[in-house]
């Protein structure tokens, strides 16, 4: 199927899906031998078999190679036939995110949660989405839910800490940063962000320690912050 153009593939997907829907609408006893009906059903079944997972797997390969537009086309094709495939819908959301289509990505992540309310990845992605839009209360709600789903998610506690930090809930933020680092002692960004909080509340020695840890873990900006805040 790889030799077919994207436009032709999309047209075939559409016709296959329409055939399948038509098969559902037509009552079997009265129309079973209708040539149009049989043609649609046979075409849909054969094409579904041929294309099973083809576009999905190809989309994953393009995504891994950073070819996000190509990946998106294949995910779109697959989801036309399997709209409730949670993994592919989440992957398409990440793909849209990489293309800067954040609102469309958000819709996919929300759909994932409707299909699978316990999906931690989609919950974390929604927290990050709202954080980048400066919607810190929404970001915190999703982060809180993420750590309820997975109490060992260092990333979940990190997102929780960042949102609390932005909202001015410093004690809660510090506690969440601490948990994130306990769960992942090499979480460089958690050290870096915690250092900002510690420095802001006057705990300079602890803040400088965190900056040195962040620098050792190759966090961008850590060396410059050390020179600025911890030189003397």
Please explain how this structure is put together:
- This protein has 14 helices and no strands.
- By secondary structure, the protein is mostly helical.
- Mean pLDDT is 84; it is low at 1-5, 11-17 and 19-28.
- 35% of the residues are buried.
- α10 packs antiparallel against α11.
Mean pLDDT, rounded to whole units?
Answer: 84
The total count of helices amounts to 14
Based on CA inertia axes, which overall geometry fits? elongated
Query: What low-confidence regions span 5 or more consecutive residues with pLDDT below 50?
Result: 1-5, 11-17, 19-28
Strand content: under 5%
- Report helical residue fraction: over 70%
**End-to-end Cα distance:** 65 Å
Q: What is the makeup of the main sheet?
A: none
Number of extended strands = 0
| Order of secondary-structure elements | HHHHHHHHHHHHHH
Computed Rg: 24 Å
Structural class: mainly alpha
Quick synopsis:
The chain is mainly α and 232 residues long.
Write the layout of secondary structure elements.
Blueprint: H1 6-25, H2 28-31, H3 35-51, H4 54-64, H5 68-81, H6 86-98, H7 102-115, H8 120-132, H9 136-149, H10 154-167, H11 170-183, H12 188-200, H13 204-216, H14 222-229
């Amino acid at each position: 199927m790889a030799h077919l153009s994207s436009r032709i593939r999309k047209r075939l997907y559409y016709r296959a899906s329409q055939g399948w829907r038509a098969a559902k609408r037509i009552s079997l006893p009265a129309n079973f031998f209708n040539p149009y009906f049989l043609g649609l059903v046979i075409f849909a079944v054969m094409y579904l078999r041929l294309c099973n997972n083809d576009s999905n797997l190809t989309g994953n390969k393009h995504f891994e190679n950073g070819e996000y537009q190509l990946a998106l086309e294949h995910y779109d094709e697959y989801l036309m036939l399997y709209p409730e495939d949670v993994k592919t819908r989440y992957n398409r959301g990440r793909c849209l995110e990489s293309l800067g289509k954040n609102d469309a990505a958000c819709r996919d992540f929300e759909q994932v949660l409707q299909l699978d309310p316990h999906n931690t990845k989609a919950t974390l992605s929604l927290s990050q989405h709202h954080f980048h839009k400066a919607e810190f209360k929404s970001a915190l709600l999703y982060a809180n839910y993420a750590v309820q789903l997975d109490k060992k998610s260092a990333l979940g506690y990190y997102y929780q800490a960042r949102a609390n930090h932005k909202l001015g809930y410093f004690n809660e933020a510090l506690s969440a940063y601490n948990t994130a680092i306990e769960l992942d002692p090499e979480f460089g960004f958690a050290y870096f962000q915690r250092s900002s909080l510690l420095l802001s509340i006057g705990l300079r020695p602890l803040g400088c320690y965190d900056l040195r840890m962040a620098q050792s873990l190759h966090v961008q900006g850590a060396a410059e912050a050390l020179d600025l805040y911890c030189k003397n």
